[in-house]
Specification:
Helix content: 40-55%
Number of strands: 4
Distance between the termini: 48 Å
Strand order of the largest sheet: 1-4
Strand content: 15-25%
Oligomer: single chain
Length: 130
């Protein structure tokens, strides 16, 4: 058995276990996107700090009264992660052939012509995360 055949078998096993997510209909994405508030580092860090007891840690001042540096570390960590997502992350997508349909009026030697069509090549889409 070669390394290549082992890798192929492992890939086939992993692909059987991890199925791709079902596509979300575009109308639902559009409806949900306008209602999302965007990422808030303060809210994310607050939620993590609030849940620290689930991991056996605690929040608030330490028993000796000194500041809990773990809270500051979490806030900094989340601020940096969110900053990287908002500033550095690239979102790319594609629209299949026929995914963009258009209708309009064109011109010909005989006069105005109704034009109906669709994209004949895949379309590349860029976006940003917020």
């Amino acid at each position: 058995m070669t390394i290549e055949s082992i890798c192929k078998k492992l890939n086939s096993l992993v692909s059987m276990v991890r199925k791709p997510l079902n596509a979300i209909p575009a109308a639902l994405i559009l409806c949900g996107a306008v209602n999302r508030p965007g990422l808030s580092p303060m809210l994310i860090a607050s939620n993590i700090i609030r849940r620290l007891p689930e991991a056996g840690a605690y929040f608030g001042p330490l028993k000796n009264g000194s500041a809990n540096i773990m809270e500051a570390v979490e806030r900094i960590r989340i601020e940096e992660i969110v900053k990287a997502i908002k500033s550095d992350m690239r979102i790319e997508g594609g629209i299949n052939i026929g995914g963009i349909q258009f209708q309009g009026t064109g011109a010909s030697a005989a006069g105005p012509v109704e034009v109906v069509g669709f994209n004949i090549n895949p379309v590349h889409v860029d976006a940003i995360a917020r």
